[in-house]
Specification:
Shape: globular
Number of helices: 9
Distance between the termini: 20 Å
Mean pLDDT: 77
Helix content: 55-70%
Order of helices and strands: HEEHHEEHHHHHHE
Largest sheet: 5 strands, mixed
Strand content: 5-15%
Amino acid sequence: MPLLNAQKNALNLGSCLFGIPVYVHWSNLFLPLVALARDYPEPFISTFIVVLFGPALILMVLLHELGKVMVTRAYGGTVESIVLWPLGGLTVFGPQQGGASAELKIGIIGSFIHVPIIGILAGIYALLTGGDMSGFQVSSNASISRTMNGFAIGIVQQLYKLNVLIILSNLIIPTFPLDGGRIMGALFMKCGMATSTAAKITSSIGVLMSLAGTAYGCYLFFFLGSFGALFELVVGIYLVYTSTNTLIRSATGTLSDDPIFGGPCYVKKEDVNFEAVTEKEGDVV
């Protein structure tokens, strides 16, 4: 996919993760700007946003991708690079063995990495607040006092929300570049479903869910005047685009070009040249 071409559209940070090149996509520049446009109650939020959507978020995404790297290598696969972009991380894989079972494990491991992370965040939050966990909720708004302790509490609180969002979006939304499409496709293949049928069902669900997300973003942006909803709107449109592409490929018999269903466990070996590296799934933030 040209938009996510690591060499052409991203900054190379070097081989800083087990010898794997890590890139930062240019579109990350828009993430802090959109985040700063949201309505937060404290003027001190600017520094908070830079830290939250900078080093803290990058660390979460790298841990997410690291889990998939380990499982991929365990099944004989190669990882060419990791691209960090507004939806999290995009891991560019080479061929792997293990079939649908390996595909399923690679798809879910990234999200499950966040479970122990949430546990660690809960422990840190308890230490910072003296055991008061009332603010450690997904529905809690950011509340940052002008103290180092208050700043740290706000960061931990919002990182908890981000980790929950990453888990839910990657497990629920079945479309590239999220893990959901890979998970659903692998489950269908394990049940013996034909590749084209699995692709049609997965992409159709992906289109419907992406359209719903886009409609919600439009409502927030155009009717409630929330400029921060621009991120949800753009992401929704992009996911509609990717899921529609998969649906078209399944209808035209060109699934070998699909970033999910063109993988080794979906297409017969005589139909696809598996020596070519294909771009696989990424993760939402």
